[in-house]
Amino acid sequence: MTTIEGADWIAYDRGCVREEMLRTTRLLDSVIIPHLKGHPDDEWAQLVLGQLISVKTALELLARGE
């Protein structure tokens, strides 16, 4: 994607970040949260949940941009 410049490049990058944010959200909603509902004491799943929520939050901030 080196043929784009300036604001178009930033818009492309933000789109990629939004896509990863959506993938992370789907992973949380379809895999990790249901796992924790069935096994609330699973330390590994709790760790994954915490890490992925942090990643999702960071991606939301990056996608928003100004």
Number of helices: 2
The tally of structural domains comes to 1
Overall SS class: mainly alpha
Averaged pLDDT, please?
92
Q: Could you name the ranges where pLDDT drops below 50 across 5 or more consecutive residues? A: none
Helical fraction: over 70%
- The number of E-state strands comes to 0
Largest sheet: none
Which H/E pattern describes the elements? HH
Give the CA-CA distance, first to last residue: 22 Å
Name the shape in a single word. Answer: elongated
> Compute the gyration radius: what is it?
15 Å
Strand content: under 5%
In short:
With 66 residues, the protein is mainly alpha-helical. It is 83% helix and 0% strand. It has one domain (18-64).
Structure explained in plain terms:
- By secondary structure, the chain is an all-alpha fold.
- The protein has one domain (18-64).
- Helix content is 83%, strand content 0%.
- It has helices at 6-38, 43-64.
- It is elongated, with a radius of gyration of 15 Å.
- The mean pLDDT is 92.
Protein traits:
66 residues, single chain, mainly alpha, 2 helices
Helices and strands, with pairings:
Layout: H1 6-38, H2 43-64
Helix pairs in contact: 1-2
